[in-house]
Amino acid sequence: MVKVDGTAYFLRRFMPALQSLVSPTLEVEDKPLEGTPDFTAEAYKDAYSRINAIVIEGEQEAYSNYVSIAKMLPDEAEELNKLARMELKHMRGFTACGKNLGVEADLPFAKEFFSPLHGNFQKAFSEKKLTTCFLIQAILIEAFAISAYHVYIRVADPFAKKITEGVVQDEYLHLNYGQEWLKANLATCKQELMEANKANLPLIRSMLDQVAEDASELHMDKEELMEEFMIAYQDSLTEIGLDNREIARMALAAVV
Predict the structure, then answer these.
(1) Phi and psi of 240, rounded to 5°?
(2) I want to staple 97 with a disulfide (CB 3.0 to 4.6 A). Which of 135, 160, 236, 237 is the partner?
């Protein structure tokens, strides 16, 4: 797979979204992309084996992460474990999507794909850094998933489209839960939030780079994926209560 890297590339692709940080009226049209993939083509199935594995592993990671967060917030454990169980339901749905196309998910690839974020989350959990855990799972991973699912829905096969539409609605609930906790605790957690962002936002950029070629085979445009992610990310930080200057500083952490 081809990995595109570099600050210049990121700035060129992300600048419209970064500029949107000072323009809250920006809207994205949810319109179908032109053309649909050949779902039976070997090249499509090969790429799908990795993309499908990523969403399956992503939901498994989310399940484990919410269970871990529940241990740090025992008073909210019931709700957090409910969110975790929803992620397992999503995982089963995406597993069925692969089976529907006769594709075996490349799970070893997906585990390696999530390894950096997984390691950072586990380190934060061991250090009882709840803010960092919420940023990684409930903001970065959820925004990453929501943006990718929105783009995928437009080019998915009918079976996967129905599954994904149901999943994305649940993911907004998960995103909102993290936003509300961080908003309620912003006065005491802002510094950790900034530090956690600096360490983890660049990983999202590299993850998008890593899947660009496979995503393209599925007719998912990398630039659109980036823009959708940045918009979802911006909206989350705004809901948490950060101002435009703070949001811009956090977004730029991905390129320094």
Answers:
(1) -65, -30
(2) 160
Contact 227, 17 (CB under 8 A): yes
pLDDT, tens digit, 9 for 90 and up, residues 38-49: 999 999 999 999
Domain boundaries, the chain: 7-17+39-255
User: 120 CB contacts (<8 Å, ≥6 apart)?
Assistant: 132, 136, 199, 200, 203
Which among 67, 235, 213 has a CA at the least distance from the CA of 137? 67
Between CA 200 and CA 226, with CA 63 as vertex, the angle to 5 degrees is: 40
Length of the chain: 256
What distance lies between CA 174 and its chain's CA centroid? 12
What is the distance between the alpha carbons of residues 225 and 150, in angstroms, rounded to a whole number?
A: 9
Q: What is the pTM of this model?
A: 0.83
pLDDT in tens, 175-213: 678 888 999 999 999 999 999 999 999 999 899 899 999
How far is residue 101's CA from residue 105's CA, in Å, rounded to a whole number?
Answer: 11
Q: What's the CA dihedral at 217, 221, 226, 231 to 10 degrees? A: -130
Cα 106 from Cα 113, distance rounded (Å): 11
Confidence of residue 171 (pLDDT cuts 50, 70, 90): confident
| CATH fold group of domain 7-17+39-255 | Ferritin (1.20.1260)
In this predicted structure, which of 41-45, 51-55, 74-78, 234-238 has the lowest mean pLDDT?
Answer: 234-238
Predicted confidence band of residue 142 (pLDDT cuts 50, 70, 90): confident
Phi (first) and psi of residue 116, to 5 degrees: -60, -45
